[in-house]
User: Fold this.
Amino acid sequence: MEWSDDIISRLRALWSEGLSTAEIGRRLNISKNAVVGKAHRLNLPARPSPIRRGEGHVSPRPAAPRRAQGPTLPPLAAALAGNPGPALRPIAPPPKNSLRATPCCWPIGEPGKPSFHFCNVSSVPGKPYCEDHAAVAYVRVRDRREDAA
Ligand SMILES: [Zn+2]
Assistant:
């Protein structure tokens, strides 16, 4: 077996690619043992044998990332790009999940203007408005009914 510089450089290249010694031998048309011996003499870096790879490793696969499991939420940026988002939702009173501490949703000012807001005073239990606005609202309803009558 003549180890020319050309063959040695090819051996180094194939070795660095991680090919098996048998495969390197096939490509260089030499025996596997010659490859192993020459690699040893060249002091090429040791690498795991392909036969042993996968053996003795308890967990060859790393644990899957948590975010890949179950339903995934789109990134915030994508969500904002894909829909108008909460900023453009119409202003609405909070859901009436409680009879207490529901802010009065009486509109003050003209909708669309910066000064427009809701009263937000604690409302009368069972009604969407505070005491004052509830009085106004129900008086108005009565007035309208009287007007219509
Ligand atoms: Zn009010």
Q: What stands out?
A: The chain has a mean pLDDT of 76.
